[in-house]
Amino acid sequence: IPYLSAETFKHEPLYCNLEEVYSKLFEWLEMMTRNYLPSEYEVLVRLVRVLPSKATSLTSPFLSLIINLNICSEAHRDAKDKDLCLVLPIRNFKGGSLVLKQQGLVLDLANGDFVVFRLAETTHFNLDYE
Hints:
There is one protein chain. The protein is an alpha+beta fold. It has two domains: 1-67; 71-130, no CATH class. It has three helices and five strands; from the N terminus they run αααβββββ. The strands form two sheets. A three-stranded antiparallel sheet has the order 3-2-5, with no helix packed on it. Strands 1-4 form a two-stranded antiparallel ribbon. The longest helix is centred in the first third of the chain and has 25 residues, at 12-36. It is globular, with a radius of gyration of 15 Å. The relative contact order is 0.16.
């Protein structure tokens, strides 16, 4: 269920800045998802409609926003995440390519690039960065 986490309240000014700076980008990403992945988009929208609070997300139709700062993840699948994930790097680093194992892809994403994939079905991780 989408909700504001304790971290959001702890860092509320940062969250508000993200909302202000990236709101147009999130709107554009929603439009791209709706246009290019219409059936997947409808599934995500239906999930929001059945939630008790009818909550909305800053990153609609995606239900959450996770910010990873300075991490290098190990290979994993997110079994509890049912549908799509959108990865959008905001870069000031070198390396850190996103690896999608089953697809055999190593993606060196630049600012403005994004990728959508199924978290539960795809083993993913990022390479070392500097």
